[in-house]
Write a structure and sequence with these properties.
The protein is 44% helix and 12% strand. By secondary structure, it is of the alpha/beta class. Strand 4 and strand 5 (88-91) form a beta hairpin. The N and C termini lie close together (6 Å).
Length: 105
Amino acid sequence: MQLYISPPLFAEYESVLNSSKLGLSKRSIRSALERIRAAAHAINPGRRLAVCLYDDDDNRVLECAHAAGADFLITGNKRHFPARWKQTLIVNARQFLEQTASIKF
């Protein structure tokens, strides 16, 4: 199982983690971003999508999944995405765990 990230996604993660709503320390934010960078495979999607109509930023997530050939896109806001995009199934965390429980990683 691999984690993929694109520059626009990393920028969004950084922005969200720095939100005053979360109240995270600069050290925690820096640590989280370093862990994401270390664990993820960087990918530069070459194709722009306009599939998600509610929030254009969601298209950046879909572009990354598409470029990576991802089997799953795990999100907390499934309603903003199609049920599937090409080979990528859009699931929430619970669904992902249920569908992959028997897979040996």
